[in-house]
Write a structure and sequence with these properties.
With 322 residues, the chain is an alpha/beta fold. It has a single domain (3-321), classed as P-loop containing nucleotide triphosphate hydrolases (Rossmann fold, 3-Layer(aba) Sandwich). It has 15 helices and six strands. A four-stranded parallel β-sheet has the order 4-3-5-6, sandwiched between helices. Strands 1-2 form a two-stranded antiparallel ribbon. The protein is globular.
């Protein structure tokens, strides 16, 4: 059986990633990729929300430019193409004006993205339990303007707020589909489905995997792996500067330039976008019932190697060799 690409109707090779779904919500729309014309060497940073997106963008940026002093603030240099905030034509024009290797951010799963063999897809994973807690931090830090915009697109009143009780939200998140073809993820999108779409094609040479916990444990080593994948050679004398620039602490001190959407006033506090690098905090916050719920859901829906990597990073094995 063949499958048709959503944007062109052409028949796709089932051995290649297939664009099967449109992901659309009050925050972003994957159909905006229809306007994108790829260049050889482009880098697409692919993460489920709150799974190391900005960190991965920063790693790619300092490696591509070979300096902590980027040609534009990261928030403008590496735009979220899918995001509704600005007209897609404006975002595309800004990307087209960049004369260097471009870094594009997306939260769209691979089954909603166009696939280009000469583009690098850099995936960052994270334990879904920590990602959910960071997402609640994220929503609590959204500016009134950003909340009002999202509420209007969703047809809700301006005073809408995501519940603050992490355990209440977690139960909904693990049991309610975000899209008809997923089994969980409401209202933020399924981190499990997201990971599955890339994991299925992990053998492809232009798909690379990082993990949030590995960045916390060994930033230098992970940057070297990423540089090798992107075929970037860095002056050894400059290397320590690049690692320091990409540290979580440094990004927080430069939040006005680095936090996504900072130039659009999306946050109550730009620095609080980098509130804390949560690793394993779910153990202290999620109830025993919710921890059991997570264990049951992931056991049913994820293959063991993927579950091990999502929860532990490369200590559970390199995705390319599993």
């Amino acid at each position: 059986m063949t499958v048709a690409d959503l944007s062109t109707g052409r028949q796709l090779d089932p051995a290649r990633p297939q664009r099967l779904h449109r992901y659309e919500n009050p925050i972003f729309d994957s159909a905006r990729w229809d306007h994108f014309v790829a260049r050889p060497g482009d880098i697409v940073v692919c993460t489920a929300p709150k799974c190391g997106t900005t960190w991965t963008q920063m790693l790619c940026a300092v490696l591509v430019h070979g300096t902590p002093e980027l040609p534009l603030p990261l928030t403008k240099l590496s735009r979220w193409l899918d995001r509704h905030t600005q007209p897609v034509e404006q975002v595309i024009a800004e990307f087209d004006a960049q004369p260097y290797r471009r870094i594009i951010k997306t939260h769209t799963p691979l089954d909603g993205l166009p696939y280009f063999e000469d583009v690098s897809y850099v995936v960052c994973g994270r334990d879904p339990r920590d990602a959910l807690l960071s997402m609640l931090d994220h929503f609590n830090n959204l500016s009134e303007h950003s909340l009002a915009q999202a509420a209007r697109r969703a047809g809700m009143h301006d005073g809408f707020r995501v519940p603050k009780d992490a355990n209440e939200v977690f139960r909904i998140y693990m049991t309610t589909p975000a899209q008809p073809w997923t089994q969980d993820g409401f209202p933020f999108g399924s981190a499990l489905h997201y990971a599955q779409t890339f994991w299925a094609f992990r053998h492809l040479p232009n798909i690379f995997f990082l993990h949030y916990a590995d960045l916390v444990r060994g930033l230098d080593e992970e940057m070297r792996r990423l540089a090798a994948f992107l075929t970037i050679e860095v002056d050894p004398e400059r290397w320590p500067q690049l690692v320091a620039a990409a540290s979580f602490t440094n990004m927080k001190t430069r939040a006005d330039d680095i936090a996504p959407g900072a130039h659009l006033g999306e946050w109550t506090s730009n620095a609080d976008f980098f509130r804390k690098a949560r690793v394993g905090e779910w153990r202290e916050i999620l109830s025993p019932d919710n921890q059991d719920l997570y264990a049951r859901v992931t056991r049913e829906r994820l293959e063991p190697q993927l579950q091990g990597w999502l929860e532990n990073g490369r200590t559970a094995g390199d995705p390319k060799s599993l």
